[in-house]
Structure formats: C-alpha cells, structure tokens
Amino acid sequence: MNREVVVIGGNHHNTLSILRSLGEKGIKSLLIVLSPYDPKPFVGYSKYIQKKIVVTNINEISSAMYSLHTTAEKAIVIACNDCISSYLDMNHNNLSKDFVLPGSKDEGMITHFMDKGAMAQLAVKSGLNIPKSIIISTANPEFESITYPCISKPLVSKNGSKSDIVICEDESALRKYLNHCRCDKIIQEYISKDIEFQLIGCSIKEGDKIIIPGVSIILRQPMNGNTGFLRYFPIKEFTYDKSSCFEFIRSTGYSGLFSVEFIRDKNGTDYFMEINFRNDGNSICVTASGMNLPYIWYLYNCGENIESELCYDSM
Fold it and tell me: pLDDT tens, 173-202?
C-alpha cells in the first residue's frame, strides 16, 4: 500500500500520536502543522514524516493539502483538533473530490453537532443521560435557572479550549468568569463523580461499524496541562450503555477517529459530556495496547480488510 495520508494538526502530542501510530506500520505521513506562533514546531521533527508544511492560519490548509498531494488516488486525511475537523467539514464538497475526509457526507453536519446544545439534544434522543444544562449568551446572560455548583464550557469546542472549562460554586463566581468570556456558554449542573471515562474509537462508514477497543479512566489531572494520568483497559472489562452510545454515533453520520466523554456519578449513573470528532489526545495509549486505530482507518480507506487488526482479545 502506498496511498498518501495527510495528517493535519497543531503542535501537540495529539498530532505526534498519529504520526507514530502510522509510522510504526511503515507509513510516512504528509504533515500540515497549524502553528500560528512557532515557525519550527517540534511536531515537524518526527522521523515518520515524508513531507511537511507549516501554516499560520487555518484558511491556508486547503492550499497546503493540494501542495502535498501529488498522486491520482485520493489522499486519506486525519484531523487532530476541533478547528481542523470543522474546517474540513465546512469545505467537504470541494475537498472530497481529491481527499478521503473524516466527517459526514453532508457538508456542515459535523460542525452543527459540535454545538453542545445540538449534541446534547441528540444524546438524549439516542437514550443517553446528560446533566441538567442551560445555554447562555455572554452578552446577555440569564441566571435564574442555574443550579450551583455548575460547570461552564464553550458552547462550541472549537471556539474555546480546555482552560475555558470552569467550575463555579455560586452566581457571583459565574458572573465574574463570564465577564472575561467572548463566546457563548453551556452551563451544566455539577455531577459529583465517581469516575470520568473516555471511549476512544473509530467509526467506519457513518457508524455502520464502530470500533471501541477500550476505555480510559482519568486518575488525576495535572495543573499545567489538559492530558492527565489515566488507566486504560479493554472494553470487555467495562460496562456502559453500548447500544445508546452506538446509536448516538450513528445518528451523527460521522466517519473517522473519535472519542466520547462521560462522567459516572456515585450511584453508578453515566452522564454523556461530549464527543470529539477527531483523533483524541490520549489515543497513543490505544495503539500501545495493541489496537492501532489510525492504521485501521487508513486500511479501510485503502479498500483493505481490517479484521486482522481488530485484536480485542490480545489487549
């Protein structure tokens, strides 16, 4: 197999995990690094790169893709952050002529579901529990229906970062926080959690086949980053609402790498938090466990059989 694969991400270990996962299978990637401030991003020094382009603005990505893509066959694309996933989604009709893109066949659909309000509605329709939630405008917030303590998050993930997720103990704290915010927020009730877990997987053919090899449970969160210390173990050792979770993923029409985040409360009830329509920052632990999801995505889009790579029992 010599199909081109284009990896698009920031200067982050998320992008490195894709390069390594594919590289360990003998595939050197074409890399586009979105790096507004560092002209020599460390990601660009991976030994698993064939060629690379560094861009400073997301609107440069399309031209960079065509600069790297040189074969008649469509290049396979993997996205490593929310902004890039949305960009590919919003330019799907043009780019899909020459690239195999993650996302939905309907342009704009994945960006629509990146809105946590739309995401929550679909989760409930699919049978998942969600925390009590309210959407507020930072320009004209209303506080009457909010239960404290609460968690405030950007309504659309690509408009914020992990540091924008804040726990507020009372209305005074929430008002103070919102005074410094520019994007609209979704405010959720605070769930006293037993565990926080994440399902990292790959959706094939709009959810016709959904691969979730295992589950990661956050053990503790470092003060200086958004990736914590975690435990990863096989999905067969973990109980969750598989049917509702799979129904939710299918309903988005999404194909590609993903992660779904949940909180389990002290009574054992699981609450859906969000889905990430892209490779997850913790995904290297899945590759290390024996299931190489980026390679599976690559194989499938090359028209190869993926069954030999689905080694659930060896994990």
Answer: 888 888 877 778 888 888 889 999 999 999
